[in-house]
Amino acid sequence: MSFGRAVRGSNWIEGYRASLDDVLDVIDGQKPLDVSQETRLALTGYRDAMTYILRLAEVGITIDQSLLKSLHFMMTKHDLRVQPGLYRTSNVWVADETGARVYEAPDAELVENLMDELVRSLDHDDSKPAMFRAAMAHLNLAMIHPFRDGNGRMARALQTMVLSAEGIASPVFSSVEEYLGRNTDAYYAILSEVGQGSWHPENSARPWIRFMLRAHYQQAWTLQRRIHETEHLYDSISQLLNRHNLPTRATGALADAARGRRLRRAVYANLVELVDGDPISDLSASRDLKSMVDAGILVPQGTGRGRTYHGSEELHRVWLDIRSSRPPAPNDDPYTTLPQPPLPGIST
In angstroms, rounded to a whole number, what is the distance separating the alpha carbons of residues 60 and 67? Predict the structure, then answer.
């Protein structure tokens, strides 16, 4: 779910709008129900790139220009017009919704050397906290704008990758892409403040770093809250399954349905396999779903391959009761208001 939210957030910023259900379907290799072909391909490409980053994190990541170009190819291979995996050979700019230019990237002939400098800084600059270096990698790639398109997605993926290389946390949980997707206007505003319309590497990056530290704090708090809520949700669903004499393997799928996820037979089977480690037959998956419908826990919609299952009122009430007891959100800027503690390794 966290991976899906990160993929959705980064692509949402670029105008590829999709529900979390459809993003999760893409991640699971299922055909989404309510997105355009272009959005589906963009989501699939980003899923592939981020999945590769997750795998590299398990064995160790060495970031170089070849890796960055490969990731860009994965993200944009569905649109050959943007020259997937290749640096741009012409000058580019960023325009706002009115068509006005808000940022002009450095000349194309500077891109190769600037990207070389960026990669070398990641390899040698280990004197600063990982969150700082990851944020600066994001900013520098966004400002260099080395590709014809997909620079924002690449910059956000690079930030996650730098954090992943440190091994400080799972890449899924160290990413702030969900936060940026929810705060797109603020994200663009801070990029505009630091960039000031064109390539100005002498500008202070302090506003950007402060913004990213707040993003990490807010995302970490959100994840901590979700962990607490999910623990209670699993306990409640386990009790619900026991009352109806249903298999406990359905716990995770029902937890997703309680939070609003749309289930399909293939999705349910995949969720069960992720938990148990063993595949479940189509027949067993169908029997489980029918049993939960008969028990009034799930509500079916549609027929045939388009049949979906949604949480019943009883199931949603379990989730609503848990959410009603959630603590208030933290201060928007914990680094200026004491006694909020700083994140480990980050100076106030």
Answer: 13
174-232: pLDDT as tens digits: 889 999 999 999 999 999 999 999 999 999 999 999 999 999 988 988 898 899 999 99
How far apart are alpha carbons 316 and 295 in whole angstroms? 14
Is 292 contained in some domain? Answer: yes
Distance CA(70)–CA(86), nearest Å, equals: 9
Domain assignment present for residue 338? The answer is no
Angle subtended at Cα 135 by Cα 132 and Cα 136, rounded to the nearest 5 degrees: 85
The verdict on 15 and 118 lying in the same domain is yes
Non-local CB neighbours of 134 within 8 Å, separated by 6+ positions: 158, 159, 160, 162, 163
Query: Would you say residue 22 lies in a domain?
Result: yes
Closest CA to 204 of 212, 213, 194, 216: 194
Q: How many domains does the chain have?
A: 2
- CA geometry: angle 262, 10, 16, nearest 5 deg: 65
Q: Quote the domain boundaries for residue 253.
A: 222-323
